[in-house]
Specification:
Helix content: over 70%
Distance between the termini: 15 Å
Shape: elongated
CATH topology: Growth Hormone, Chain: A
Radius of gyration: 16 Å
CATH class: Mainly Alpha
Number of helices: 6
Number of domains: 1
Largest sheet: none
Length: 185
């Protein structure tokens, strides 16, 4: 898989974390640089680790499903994409997301990175090494999360819901690209 496709997947996966970051920026009244970096780093770490976990899980049964792995990759990516589109409107405008309270940052980091687990599984099935994609996914998520918090502080209320829809569409298109590369070639 080429670096551009990995970068596009990373952006698609980061949309959940970006949307939550925008919401944090909109709703958390007292947030300094330390809190902003902590949230972004937590999202980035989880988003980088989950594909590795999914990839390792896929190693055990990759040989058994090699004939239709592209269909599984398409199904996972399309499913994640449709889920993101479906959930795009679930966050109410006035709902506060205080990521820094209690274990909430851990839960938000885990919740926004579950999709990356499925992508890691897809990479394993497609026999793609995982270290470089995981690093790219982590760095992209960290950067977009940091930017999302800043954006949320300024104009976040204008973008709620739309960001996840774009991310979902991106993941569906990448899944379709994988499917077409394996079935038409």
């Amino acid at each position: 898989m080429d670096y551009f496709s990995i970068l596009v997947i990373a952006v698609g996966l980061a949309m959940d974390a970006f949307a939550v970051s925008v919401a944090c920026g909109v709703t958390i009244k007292q947030m300094g640089l330390r809190q902003t970096l902590t949230i972004a780093a937590s999202f980035a770490l989880f988003q980088a680790l989950m594909p590795i976990i999914g990839w390792l899980a896929g190693l055990g049964f990759r040989d058994y499903i090699a004939a239709y792995d592209h269909w599984i990759a398409f199904g996972l990516l399309a499913g994640i994409g449709f889920k993101m589109i479906y959930e795009a409107g679930r966050l109410e405008e006035d709902e506060e997301i205080d990521a820094m309270s209690g274990g909430r940052l851990l839960l938000l980091s885990l919740a926004t990175s579950i999709d990356a687990l499925a992508v890691g599984l897809s990479f394993s099935l497609l026999n793609i090494t995982i270290l470089t994609p995981a690093l790219i996914i982590g760095f992209v998520t960290g950067g977009l999360s940091h930017g999302g918090i800043i954006l949320g502080r300024k104009v976040g209320h204008l973008f709620e819901g739309k960001i996840e829809i774009i991310g979902g569409i991106i993941l569906i298109l990448i899944g379709l690209k994988i499917l077409l590369e394996h079935t038409i070639a």
